[in-house]
Amino acid sequence: MSEPDRDLLTGIRQGLPDPLPSRLAVAVSGGGDSLALLHLIARAVDGQGVTLRVATVDHGLRPEVAEEIRLVARLCDDLGLAHDVLTWDQIAEPGNLQDRARRARYDLLTGWARDHGMAALALGHTADDQAETLVMRLSRSAGVTGLAGIPPQRREQGVLLIRPLLTLRRARLRRYLQDHGIAWAEDPSNHDTRFDRVRARAALEQLAPLGVTTDALVRVARNMADAEAALAETAGAAARDVVSIDAGDVLIARRAFLDLPDEIARRLLLAALRWITGDIYPPRRIPVAHTLAAITEGRGGQLAGCRVLCRGESIRICREFNAVRGLSAPPGAVWDGRWRVTGPATEGAEIRALGRAGLARCPDWRDSGRPHAAILATPAVWSGTELLAAPLAGLENGWHAALTRGETEYHALLLSH
Ligand SMILES: Nc1ncnc2c1ncn2[C@@H]1O[C@H](COP(=O)(O)OP(=O)(O)OP(=O)(O)O)[C@@H](O)[C@H]1O
User: What's the 108 CA to ligand 1 centre distance in angstroms?
Assistant: First the structure.
């Protein structure tokens, strides 16, 4: 083995879980980074009882994909590894195509890894990706969480995503592939300056003379990830003292909340919003800052499909009626991403928000102890315009509403960013 290869192998071993999993999945697109990832992992785990399995996602968007799949299949063949092609059956949906393709890719890959009993899935993000991500996030005034960059490990949908190339340079990996006679596909969008990432790459070249190099930015990301972990732990400890769950609402003790450092208070609020809405991404900083200012002044507000109510000693964060007014689900299915309403089999029953019209038919709603605004957005059982039940507003009629997430999930959100 030549000396430079040993260097890469050492780098990759540091990025693999310890102890090694018995089954490890690798996501390979046919580009240089992930082909190098596959070859290096196969060498790094050779003889250590690890079963590798490879997947390529075909988004059905570009004609070059057939050639990319062929390149991956050939390397898998040489290495004696199973290779699966996962196809994205795109459905017409609103939203940016690139974003949707990316989300679908992660869903397909994690689903496939789970189906094959793979504990971990390796992705080929490199040090260059990390540095470019930091530059892009600087332009969006990121805080500690954003500047921690791409995490080297992260659990998503039950699968541990690992990125063993995160400290290794793209150019070095290309040289490795050339040395080993492995062909790769070049993504034409890598030169398309309409993409932020391509412009960030060009900006990095300009910044290098100032010492703002890829390696320096990788170190910044690591420093920020350490700070992020400390802040997350502090937020978790604070939450245990001041946060509780009341039916579908998050309650925060106001006085203790106001005594917390701003950054910790902000984290508790963001976790509350994400716990209620199920959104992966938090709302933008500026509206969050406005809401925190409003809480300080004892006013409430609306944010990200939630209401923030300040009453006496408590801050209540609940679902906003307007965010759920159009939602409908059959009984037993999940409504608003978090409620499951069950009851006697009833022809034509459907779950919709209670709203004002429903609340007017619930004389005992005040017994719940929850405010009007919170109760309006709770699930109710309807048959057309007839209200059959409102289990969270004192009109049970044999129906029951259960949350699909609780306090544990709230605390988990404080740890994931
Ligand atoms: N079509 C694909 N099939 C299988 N794996 C893929 C595919 N595209 C990307 N990957 C995996 O994801 C890694 C990162 O690729 P890329 O930077 O293009 O993805 P991304 O999802 O846009 O990244 P990010 O997560 O930063 O948005 C690749 O090295 C590879 O491991």
Answer: 12
Clarify whether residues 247 and 378 are in a common domain: no
Q: In what order do the strands lie in the sheet with 120-122?
A: 82-87, 51-58, 23-27, 120-122, 159-162, 153-156
Listed range (80-94, 213-227, 378-392, 396-410) with the worst mean pLDDT:
80-94
Q: Answer yes or no: is 84 within a domain.
A: yes
Same domain, 121 and 77: yes
How many structural domains comprise the chain? 3
Say how far apart CA 79 and CA 73 lie, in whole Å. Answer: 10
Annotated binding site for ATP: 29-34
Q: Which residues span the domain enclosing 74?
A: 3-221
Residue 335 and residue 297 in one domain:
no
Q: Are 292 and 262 in contact (CB under 8 A)?
A: yes
Please indicate, yes or no, whether residues 159 and 244 belong to a single structural domain of this protein. no
pTM for the model:
0.86
- Pick the atom of ligand 1 nearest to 150's CA: 26
Distance 58 CA to ligand 1 centre (A): 12
Q: 38 C-alpha to center of ligand 1: Å?
A: 13
| Mutation test residue for ligand 1: of 24, 26, 33, 34, the one with most atoms within 8 Å of CB | 34
DSSP reduced 3-state for 39: helix
Three-class SS of residue 403?
strand
Query: Is the same domain home to 341 and 311?
Result: no
110 located within any domain: yes
124 ligand 1 Cβ < 6 A: yes
Residue 227 covered by a domain:
no
Where does the pLDDT of residue 2 fall: very low under 50, low under 70, confident under 90, or very high at 90 and above?
low
Position 262 scores a pLDDT of: 95
The answer, yes or no, to whether ipTM is higher than 0.90 is yes
Identify the pLDDT of residue 89. 83
Phi then psi for residue 162, to 5 deg, are -125, 150
Same domain for 246 and 349 = no
Query: Tell me: the pLDDT tens digits for 363-390?
Result: 999 999 999 999 999 999 999 999 999 9
- Same domain for 85 and 186? yes
Positions at the binding site? 29-34
CB of residue 34 inside a 6 A radius of ligand 1: yes
Q: Which tens digit of pLDDT belongs to each residue from 240-263?
A: 999 999 999 999 999 999 999 999
